[in-house]
Design the sequence.
């Protein structure tokens, strides 16, 4: 059993219940950590997130809530609900700031772009709070903060693009943001400071490491939406 994380000059350290700093490797609350063997600074974290594929369950347009659910699995906070139950209890609204716009089970997205087939950070954060009280809308946050929060064992849902490719904007004034034809949402559930990579759980393409600059570029191109769990 380990004690509190401590930030010293922007760096993260862990201390055990005896007050001694943790060095080397450790698994804390189902998250794998690596620490500098001399300084004790944490430089690596990888959470035990879920790996639900949205296509496998038929939720073709539900990347946002599947990313959220995979993060809730890491925290053990699914409230004993299945992913299907979670999707079906999403608030619905034509305005994605207020709820999900469209039908997340629609394979063909026939009403796009009138329905964006998206839910944005404000609405998803409100929904997430019924599962994790720590849920916070951190849209616009910096790369440095993403790295810092991940090293603390907190997963982050971010809005980006399919394959982290260039954003295809179809409406630049869609309820106060950009509407994309290649919007996608994924979970940051790990970070390695030595390689400058985030670990991504992607509800279409699975789990992989990706350099932080590519991840953040995709995030900035899709309204800079982010949800911290």
Sequence:
């Amino acid at each position: 059993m380990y004690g509190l994380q401590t930030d010293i000059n922007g760096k993260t350290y862990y201390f055990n219940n005896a007050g001694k700093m943790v060095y080397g490797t450790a698994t804390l609350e189902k998250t794998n950590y690596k620490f500098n063997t001399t300084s004790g600074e944490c430089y690596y974290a990888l959470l035990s997130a879920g790996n639900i594929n949205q296509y496998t369950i038929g939720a073709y347009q539900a990347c946002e809530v599947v990313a959220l659910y995979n993060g809730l699995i890491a925290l053990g906070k699914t409230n004993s609900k299945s992913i299907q139950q979670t999707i079906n209890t999403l608030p619905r609204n034509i305005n994605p700031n207020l709820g999900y716009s469209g039908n997340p089970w629609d394979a063909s997205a026939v009403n796009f772009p009138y329905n964006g087939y998206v839910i944005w950070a404000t609405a998803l954060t409100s929904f997430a709070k019924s599962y994790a009280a720590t849920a916070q809308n951190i849209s616009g946050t910096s790369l440095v903060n993403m790295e810092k929060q991940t090293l603390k064992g907190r997963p982050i849902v971010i809005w980006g693009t399919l394959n982290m490719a260039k954003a295809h904007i179809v409406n630049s004034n869609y309820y106060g943001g950009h509407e994309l034809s290649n919007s996608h949402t994924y979970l940051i559930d790990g970070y390695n400071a030595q390689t400058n990579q985030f670990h991504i759980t992607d509800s279409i393409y699975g789990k992989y490491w990706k350099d932080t600059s590519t991840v953040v570029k995709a995030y900035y191109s899709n309204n800079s939406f982010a949800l911290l769990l």
